[in-house]
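Researcher: Good morning. I'm working through a list of sequences from a screen, and I'd like to move beyond sequence-only analysis. For each chain I'm collecting a predicted structure so we can compare shapes side by side. This is the next one on the list. No need for commentary yet; just the structure.
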Amino acid sequence: MRSINILIFLITIFSFSCENSETDLIIDSTEGFCIKIGDSIFFNHNQIDFYDFSSHLIYLKNGNSFLYSTRGIFTVFADNIEIYSGQMSPSYSSYLPIGPVIYCAPSFYSDYIIPIGFIQVCDTLGNKNADPRKDMRIIEALNKYNQYREGLKCEIIAVQNITFKNVKIELRLTNNDFNNLYYLDPDKMGINLFHYFTNGLFLRDSTNKTYTHSVSITHPDPWNAWKIEWLSILKSKESKTLSIIYENFETITPGQYNAFFSFPGLKHQVARDEFRKDNGRIWLGDLHVTKKIILE
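Model: Good morning. Structure tokens for this chain:
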């Protein structure tokens, strides 16, 4: 009889716990900014620390494990309104889903970050699919709980063909955040190590032929290492110009080109207890920028 009573007690406690868990998922589950993973995993303003809008990274207060195994659909809400949906895609897959995507199994980031990427396509008429991640309703929902962060902005100022096979790119970094931000500094790292984290500059002509550099890449040792000495700090609302000279660029002729550059940040290397510093935070992510240029 005693064992039966204990069994009934445990069943009652389990049922009560399940009921509370389900209730917790339902009540205010899409209040503020919220992302729903699959059919049952919710992260709303209670679980989210902040959202870096420049790199579309959601920082969580606690870790998660779903990015290692979950497949299917995710949905983004702003104050109970569904804004958009996207696909969970294995990072090793060659399939490229169109639109919003979360790469998982595994993620390129540590377990305290949910990265929302976006794959844009262009049709035969030159029309591109719009990026729903930039919806103003998302910003308003994030601001409601002080979870909106602007992060970094990167622009190509100019690309110059200095001498034969010597090409220079000038970039402007702007910190739009109210926090000071640490960024990977090519001058401190050196061009070879910097290009372990980025593909660098690409130029594309009117025939879609691509030209690029031949920088010899230096790998970190070990592969997941990073050093604070690689980083410089950009104060809130401050801008800085960076210059990179490629000394063995592919031969290019005068004319009009599309310039592409991916400004990198650290990713999985930075643990939860490392990205915050006394005078700012380490910016994580990637910024993909392009500009039409004319080379003389």
